[in-house]
């Protein structure tokens, strides 16, 4: 094995860096990003920058570009300001929801049921997905930064396949929520799903689709994935567990409304004492969005830089708003929790 590389069970080959080397790269990315409004500054915690670096194999240039694109997206989309009332229609059938249990590694669990799709708007579906992601992150324990997806294929048919939604979903999750997925379990996918999965993989990065496990209720070797991951007394019967309570949208709505009340304080500096204070950014003109050509001088990769004209000053003037708020069938494999976190940082920011 080449020096400086390590084999990760879920992520393939990655650079192996010391804690000091990782921190130096985190600091360099933060320097290149420059001053930000409070919410965006809070988003740029050490843990967040570390996730972007891992997603780009510790290339400072690529990680900085990725982070800046996400900062622009967050400034425009304001995912932390989405509230239950806006997405309740999308949630009625339980097509995506956060469970009231976690896995054995302390990871938040999101259930996805494609057959329960109840709307045709890609925009609405993606907005609800983003809401669920933000809620799952809100409910992560301080020492965990990844989540598990349980995808139930009961009742799934060809009419539920949408390459457009799949492509947009992959874009949002990979580009704006890097390293948030710990594991995705595809539970009882039908045979006709396999060609679609082959096409869908084209939208996914290898380190993402390598985290996908196929589990079949009639195959004991794959069901061991569930037994290794969950307390079977808490796991829903849909996934081979013993809990028969099912999804109740009324009860779920109450949980989400309570979480909505917590969201504004989650995006204040008092909640994130490790966030690095920065001067408030009044205008995009203050933001140097180019990536230093001398950064990562030992790397041969070339990365396009963001154009300052692509970030509107009105979008980034947020200071006054900071208080608002492989596949086929596989046997069981060892499941590993998230990557090592950087020190003195809340991992889920």
From TrEMBL:
PANTHER family: F16L1.9 PROTEIN, GH16843P. It comes from the Eukaryota. This is CRAL-TRIO domain-containing protein. PROSITE patterns: CRAL_TRIO. Residues 84-247 form the CRAL-TRIO domain. Pfam families: CRAL_TRIO (PF00650). Residues 327-349 have a biased composition (Basic and acidic residues). It comes from Hevea brasiliensis. The lineage of its organism: Eukaryota, Viridiplantae, Streptophyta, Embryophyta, Tracheophyta. SMART domains: CRAL_TRIO_N, SEC14. Residues 1-20, 263-349 are annotated as: Disordered.
């Amino acid at each position: 094995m080449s020096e400086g590389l390590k084999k990760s069970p879920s992520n393939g080959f990655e650079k192996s860096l010391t804690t000091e080397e990782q921190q130096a790269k985190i600091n360099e990315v933060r320097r290149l990003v420059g001053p930000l409004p409070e919410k965006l500054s809070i988003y740029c915690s050490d843990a967040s920058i570390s996730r972007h670096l891992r997603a780009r194999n510790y290339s400072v240039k690529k990680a900085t570009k990725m982070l800046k694109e996400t900062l622009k997206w967050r400034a425009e989309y304001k995912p932390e300001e989405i509230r239950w009332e806006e997405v309740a229609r999308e949630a009625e059938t339980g097509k995506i929801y956060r469970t009231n249990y976690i896995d054995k590694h302390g990871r938040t669990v999101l259930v996805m049921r494609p057959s329960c799709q109840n709307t045709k708007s890609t925009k609405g579906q993606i907005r609800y997905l983003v809401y669920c992601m933000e809620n799952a992150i809100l409910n992560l324990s301080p020492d965990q930064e990844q989540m598990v997806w349980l995808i139930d294929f009961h009742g799934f048919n060809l009419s539920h396949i949408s390459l457009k939604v799949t492509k947009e979903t992959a874009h949002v999750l990979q580009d704006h929520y890097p390293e948030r997925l710990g594991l995705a379990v595809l539970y009882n996918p039908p045979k006709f799903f396999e060609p679609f999965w082959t096409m869908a993989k084209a939208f996914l990065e290898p380190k993402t689709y390598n985290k996908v496990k196929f589990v079949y209720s009639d195959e004991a070797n794959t069901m061991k994935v569930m037994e290794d991951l969950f307390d079977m007394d808490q796991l829903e019967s849909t996934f081979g567990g013993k809990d028969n309570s099912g999804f109740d949208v009324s009860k779920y709505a109450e949980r989400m409304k309570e979480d909505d009340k917590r969201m504004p304080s989650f995006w204040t500096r008092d909640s994130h004492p490790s966030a690095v204070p920065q001067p408030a950014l009044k205008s995009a003109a203050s933001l140097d969005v180019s990536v230093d050509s001398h950064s990562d001088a030992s790397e041969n990769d070339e990365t396009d830089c963001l154009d300052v004209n692509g970030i509107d000053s009105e979008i980034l003037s947020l200071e006054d708003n900071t208080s608002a708020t492989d596949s086929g069938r596989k046997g069981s494999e060892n499941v590993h929790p998230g990557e090592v976190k950087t020190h003195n940082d809340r991992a889920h920011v």
